[in-house]
Amino acid sequence: MIARMxxxxxxxxxxxxxxxxxxxxxxxxxxxxxxxxxxxxxxxxNTAFALDLYAxxxxxxxxxxxxxxxxxxxxxxxxxxxxxxxxxxxxxxxHFPTQQDQLPPAFAALESNLLTDQAIQKTGTVRLDVANxxxxxxxxxxxxxxxxxxxxxxxxxVTPLDYEKAPETARKTINDWVEQKTNRKITDLINPVTxxxxxxxxxxxxxxxxxxxxxxxxxxxxAERPFHLASGKDVKCHMMAHNRxxxxxxxxxxPDLQVVKLPYKYSDLCMIVLLPRKKNGLSALESELTPAxxxxxxxxxxxxxxxxxxxxxxxxxxxxEVSLGQTLAAMGMTDAFTSKADFSGMDGQTNWLYIGExxxxxxxxxxxxxxxxxxxxxxxxxxxxxxxxxPKVFRADHPFLFFIRDxxxxxxxxxxxxxxxxxxx
Length: 425
Prior knowledge:
Layout: E1 3-4, E2 14-26, H1 39-57, E3 64-66, H2 68-79, H3 84-94, H4 103-114, H5 118-123, E4 126-136, H6 144-154, E5 157-158, H7 167-181, E6 199-211, E7 223-228, E8 234-242, E9 248-253, E10 257-263, E11 269-276, H8 282-287, H9 291-298, E12 305-314, E13 316-323, H10 325-331, H11 344-347, E14 353-366, E15 392-395, E16 400-406, E17 411-418
Parallel strand pairs: 4-5, 12-15
Antiparallel strand pairs: 1-4, 2-6, 2-14, 3-17, 4-6, 7-8, 8-12, 9-10, 9-12, 10-11, 11-16, 13-14, 16-17
């Protein structure tokens, strides 16, 4: 699928993208006229899955960055072809509706909402691209109903390849497509040993986006400052600063946490940063991360209110690649990765296809000048009024979480943990 919001600039603030690839290996879908769940139902399910997945990934070392939206979308396309216990397990893990024919129109409606922000289209300050592609084995008998469903609801391009005789050519073709869709930020996603003559299908999903900070950071204020690592050691990082008394943000605080919302120009996209007050408080924050807590801290009806805030945020670039097969299996999708898998909704044959691996790679760059960025929410309704009182100080000089969200739908597009802004992975 390709749907886009155009952007003319490409200079600085934050660039985020991700790619998910699903490999199906050898081991009828009918669209019923059933009312689809609301987009809010899909968003709630996607958010629950995002935090469940984060709970598994947080045990790995270092920085984390991934796109739960990309992963949910690609797995939704796979779920469309699952049947029996395989479908039931996927529905439970992914928080999808058990009536499979309800999900595709709901996802289509959600994506339409994400990609039709008129303000963005008119100003060209944010670009959001979502692309899905299907790469089946040449002449493999996938069901026409399954292929047409993916085209109809996920706008999926279908390109047959020859994995049996030319797996390396197939790998290069898919990698070239990924590289082109991600503005050359992600290269060589599929390694040489991934594809083989038994591969029957590769599903690829790309989310790429840029935008302008609503309030660009002044590069003259960026300075080298210490960042306190979880180990107790310090590293020097380039810390950006908004330290004027007139800087107003949506902000919330508790005895243990500070939250600030950093908007992007003329759109409903934003970066929300969750900062533990204690230098070593990230683990405690991670243990409390639930959909209810996230809504309480940062939801549109939560604690956030306009405040004068001096924001200090490090510049950083992260690239993170993860293989999610074992993680998803441990979460409960056990059959999908074994010979017990039932994806007969794809080809009409039981126990013939299974998921060989789920590869996901994401990239983000955050810097100050505000012409290349991710997601935003406008300061609608404050009308230039500056709240009274001294500014709060939000100094992200120790490990923190952030997520990039579309406030109009509530969709979390990207989720990240920054343990060391000087490490790029």
